[in-house]
Every structure is written in structure tokens, then in C-alpha cells.
From TrEMBL:
PANTHER family for the chain: FORMAMIDOPYRIMIDINE-DNA GLYCOSYLASE
BP GO annotations: base-excision repair; response to oxidative stress
Annotated ranges, domain FPG-type: 238-272
GO molecular function: 8-oxo-7,8-dihydroguanine DNA N-glycosylase activity; class I DNA-(apurinic or apyrimidinic site) endonuclease activity; damaged DNA binding; double-stranded DNA binding; zinc ion binding
EC number: 3.2.2.23, 4.2.99.18
Catalytic activity: 2'-deoxyribonucleotide-(2'-deoxyribose 5'-phosphate)-2'-deoxyribonucleotide-DNA = a 3'-end 2'-deoxyribonucleotide-(2,3-dehydro-2,3-deoxyribose 5'-phosphate)-DNA + a 5'-end 5'-phospho-2'-deoxyribonucleoside-DNA + H(+); Hydrolysis of DNA containing ring-opened 7-methylguanine residues, releasing 2,6-diamino-4-hydroxy-5-(N-methyl)formamidopyrimidine
Keyword line: DNA damage, DNA repair, DNA-binding, Glycosidase, Hydrolase, Lyase, Metal-binding, Multifunctional enzyme, Zinc, Zinc-finger
Source organism of the structure: Rubrobacter taiwanensis
Gene from which the chain derives: mutM
InterPro entries for the chain: DNA_glyclase_Znf_dom_DNA_BS (IPR015887), FPG_cat (IPR012319), FPG_Glyclase (IPR020629), FPG_N (IPR035937), H2TH_FPG (IPR015886), Ribosomal_uS13-like_H2TH (IPR010979), Znf_DNA_glyclase/AP_lyase (IPR000214), Znf_FPG/IleRS (IPR010663)
Protein name listed in UniProt: Bifunctional DNA-formamidopyrimidine glycosylase/DNA-(Apurinic or apyrimidinic site) lyase
The keyword Transmembrane is annotated on this UniProt entry: no
Assembly and interaction partners: Monomer.
Domain Formamidopyrimidine-DNA glycosylase catalytic as annotated: residue spans: 2-115
Length: 285
């Protein structure tokens, strides 16, 4: 599903291609899409307003409207926003169509039908985003803040990275890449991580997400940008879905296992399950 780099790419596309457009009509084609308010009011609050901008918070895509409302989308596994033209009109799996001025339309398509949408006023939006953890690129997000938040927890580190209250924007693909980059086993208990490992984890979070943004997102299966183009970061993944292939660092075999119920990819040699051991801890000091 779209994680921080993919939502960031879509947000930038919307700013460039759609901001300033007026929504003449809105059509909901799949009733499970609308989570708030009711379907009729959802449509009424989208019609006749102008899109003033777009922003991202965690994995939430926020389309700002001149009414003061925001259209907030959580593009789950298969969610795509497509601008027609230039993109050809999608025929199947359309959940929402925004008819824009200038004879353009913005299609929300999701073949998995998991994408959810809300129209929220400022207060409701603030409330909706209040529980999200820090943005990975914000000044507030440091190795110390990460350790302070979860460093005493006995929970496994990978599910903690996926917890949007701990840090926002990371999903299953980038979590595996981040843990590999930090040389931390996904099953390590948070309270066993060394200071050096928290530092490496923090650096790997920023490095991997920044690379994902630079490559306009990761298309493993369904992700597309607003002009229906796949991202490029899938060519830079080092362990995600590379199980059975040689580890790019040590040449050993990349493994796959379930961690916290999610398929997880890692190198058992580069990311030892029992931690770095005294030897490495000493050399890092
Ligand atoms: Zn390795």
C-alpha cells in the first residue's frame, strides 16, 4: 500500500496538476469508500468548491478545499488517483470521480476497494491526525525521541516501526528495507537495542524514505502516480521480496518469515536475531 514516499509523490502531482481546479460534480461509485460524513453530505461538500492545495500527513493524503473542508484519503493497498486526460479513463474499480472544470476528471480507482475517504472540517481534521507520531523528516524526530518513545518496550521492533503512533508514514516495504539498512533483526525486542542501533535505525528511516521519494515511489504491484506512471524505487529495494536471492551486503541468502503477522524479508547474517553481541558494541563505542 502507498507509504510515505508514494503519498508524497501523489501529493506533489496534485499540487502541480490539480490545485486551482474547481470541482463541478462529485460521484461516489462505491458506498464503502465514504467513512465520514454520510454519502449525500460527502458529495454535497465536494461540489462547487475549489481545490486549493494538497498535503500529506503520515500516509494520509489531504486535498485542501476553499470551503475550509479537506478531502482526506487513505489509499489502502490498491488506491490510485488518476487525472483524465491525459490518462485514459479507467473503466473498472472506480470508487469516486471528481469532475473538474476544464473538462478534466480525477478518478479514484482501487481494485481492492479498501481505500477510504472522509470530508472533514478543520477541527475534525486536526482530531483525526492528532494521534499520529512525528513526521520522519521533522526536527522533532530524532534517534533520542524514537528511543524515548519505545526503547523500554519488550515488543518486536518491526511492528513498532509500522505503528503510526510511534512514527508516521512507514509501511511493510520500507520497514524491511530500513531494518536491513540499520542491521537490526525485525524480531529484536525494542528494549534490547543499543544506542548505536537506535542511531542507525533513525538514519535508515530517513535515508530509505528519502530515496523512495527521489525515485517517485515503489511499485511492487499496484502503485501509480497521478499520470498512471509506476514509481522507480522497486529497482533499489535490497531485501523486500528478494528472499532466496543473495544478500547485497554479505552474499548470504535473504530470508522471509512472518513478523507481527506481516511477511518480512531480512538477512539473518547481517541482522542477527540475538543482536550485535559484545564485540560490535565495543567497536562502535
Ligand atoms: Zn547479509
Amino acid at each position: 500500500m502507498p507509504e510515505l514516499p508514494e503519498v508524497e509523490t501523489i501529493k506533489n502531482d496534485l499540487r502541480e496538476l490539480v490545485a486551482g481546479s474547481r470541482v463541478e460534480r462529485a460521484e461516489v461509485l462505491h458506498s464503502s469508500l465514504v467513512e465520514w460524513p454520510g454519502a449525500e453530505e460527502f458529495v454535497r461538500r465536494l461540489e462547487g468548491v475549489r481545490i486549493t492545495g494538497a498535503r500529506r500527513r503520515g500516509k494520509h493524503l489531504i486535498i485542501e478545499l476553499d470551503s475550509g473542508d479537506a478531502l482526506v484519503l487513505q489509499l489502502k493497498i490498491g488506491g490510485q488517483l488518476l487525472l483524465v486526460p491525459p490518462v485514459e479513463e479507467p473503466r473498472k474499480n472506480v470508487m469516486l470521480v471528481l469532475y473538474l472544470d476544464g473538462s478534466r476528471r480525477l478518478f479514484l480507482r482501487d481494485q481492492t476497494e479498501f481505500t477510504r475517504a472522509r470530508v472533514l472540517n478543520r477541527e475534525e481534521l486536526e482530531e483525526r491526525l492528532a494521534d499520529l507520531g512525528p513526521e520522519p523528516f521533522s526536527g522533532e524526530f530524532s534517534a533520542g525521541c524514537l528511543r524515548e518513545k519505545v526503547g523500554s518496550r519488550r515488543a518486536q521492533i518491526k511492528p513498532l516501526l509500522l505503528d503510526q503512533k510511534v512514527v508516521s508514514g512507514i509501511g511493510n516495504i520500507y520497514a524491511d528495507e530500513i531494518l536491513f539498512g540499520a542491521r537490526v533483526h525485525p524480531r529484536r525486542k525494542a528494549n534490547t537495542l543499543t544506542e548505536a542501533e537506535w542511531e542507525r535505525l533513525h538514519a535508515a528511516i530517513r535515508k530509505n524514505l528519502a530515496a523512495g521519494i527521489e525515485h517517485r515511489g515503489t511499485t511492487v504491484r499496484l502503485y501509480r502516480d497521478v499520470l498512471n506512471r509506476p514509481g522507480g524505487h522497486q529497482h533499489h529495494l535490497r531485501v523486500f521480496e528478494r528472499h532466496g536471492e543473495p544478500c547485497p551486503e554479505c552474499g548470504g541468502e535473504v530470508a522471509r518469515a512472518k513478523v507481527g503477522g506481516r511477511p518480512t524479508h531480512f538477512c539473518p547474517a547481517c541482522q542477527p536475531e540475538d543482536g550485535p553481541g559484545d564485540g560490535e558494541a565495543l567497536t562502535l563505542l
